[in-house]
Write a structure and sequence with these properties.
Layout lengths: L3 H4 L1 E2 L4 E2 L4 H11 L3 E5 L5 E6 H9 L21 E2 L4 H11 L3 E6 L2 E7 H7 L2 H12 L2
Parallel strand pairs: 2-3, 5-6
Antiparallel strand pairs: 1-7, 3-4, 6-7
Helix pairs in contact: 4-6
Amino acid sequence: MTTAREIMTPNAECVNADETVIDAAGKMARLGVGSLPICGTDDRLKGVLTDRDIVVKVLAQGKDPKSCLAGELAQGEAVTIGADDDAAEILRTMASHQVRRLPVIDGHKLVGIVALADVARALPDRPVGDLLDALSTD
């Protein structure tokens, strides 16, 4: 069966936990992405920062994106997938955590990102349709 390593986008860039949200937004714009993994100084994954997080948790709350740090938005333990986990595990994890992107780790090292689009390209229609239904349910 297809593994995360086979369908992921490799070489995911991180935003450091001590970088400002405005810097993270600039990096997202340069890379043309809507999310970035948040990594600590120990190179461990701390969470994922999305463009929606910036709008809802920073701008809408009246926080200053020039002083708010990306690490302040990392909540709890990041939901990840192992590089050698199979597609069924990717689908289960995305559905159970209601996420569209999963950082892919090998040991403790971030090696890529699997997005819903990656899954859609790699798998048959039926499992992808089931995942979309799960993600669309409130």
